[in-house]
Amino acid sequence: MINTPKVDKVGIEDRITRITKRSLKKEAKMEGLKMALNMVDLTTLEGMDTNNKVSQMCYKAMHLHDEYPGLPTVAAVCVYPNFVKLAVNSLKGSGVKVASVATAFPSGHSTLDIKIKDTKLAVDSGANEVDMVISRGKFHSGDFNFVHDEIASIKEACGKARLKVILETGELGNLDNVRKASDIAMLAGADFIKTSTGKIKPAATLPVTLVMLEAIKDYYYKTGTMVGMKPAGGISNAKLALQYLLLVKETLGIKWLDNHWFRFGASSLANDLLMQIMKQTTGSYQSANYFSKD
After folding, report:
1. Distance of alpha carbon 260 from alpha carbon 75, whole angstroms
2. DSSP per residue over 28-43, as a string?
3. pLDDT > 70: percent of the chain
4. Domain of 93?
5. Domain total for the chain?
6. Which of 204, 260, 259, 262 is nearest to 229 (CA)?
7. Which tens digits make up the pLDDT trace of 142-157?
8. Annotated catalytic sites, by residue?
């Protein structure tokens, strides 16, 4: 269905090595920390999720650290479809988006009819964004048309909601497959491409993200259409988050350095960013006990 370029693995690794040797200082670092915080999707996707847990997460999304005025909010909260209405009501007027996983997350194993109903439940409940997971079994079987058409069907079911397509890169096997899956998702109408569900390892990595960013760049040059990027899972500290931002800036440019086009799927990242912001402000670290976990 689609011819994709081979990935230069050595070239990818060389660029990542150069990125990880760099660092940001003073004002640039503070700007980057706040930017990254505003790109976080706070997420709870567990079998033991409750209304209280979702409500608490929504409160945190709006009140990250009230002792420090002027902090941005996070970009969004991400929940299962049955919690979307609660999240929408809890976040009313805040500007924080509500995202919902759908399509038999995280396995992707279900019928298209059920996946569409799952998606419509989330959208009809008020979700601004839908995170779907591709059918990796079909991808590995070489049925790329199936993968494309399924994404296109879910995109249609999303209506005005934006669609993030999760590739689950840790199951794709190699960087060439990551590139192919990225191209398929964008051709099918993805508004974002996302690395992982966060349920398997490895999740997001810098090399995988760079391959996906390069795919986005090529797609933009060919079509003029911007597509967003969301690395998810395994990004737990501010230093790594800043390296991702450097990677985005040098690959796609400053237009993508905005939470409309770039997100972190990493709830634990928020607290480390807050601790680093306070360190930059006061000169000393605050204990993790000063920040809520949810």
Report:
1. 8
2. HHHHHHHHHHTTBEEE
3. 96
4. 9-290
5. 1
6. 262
7. 999 999 999 999 999 9
8. 131, 194, 230
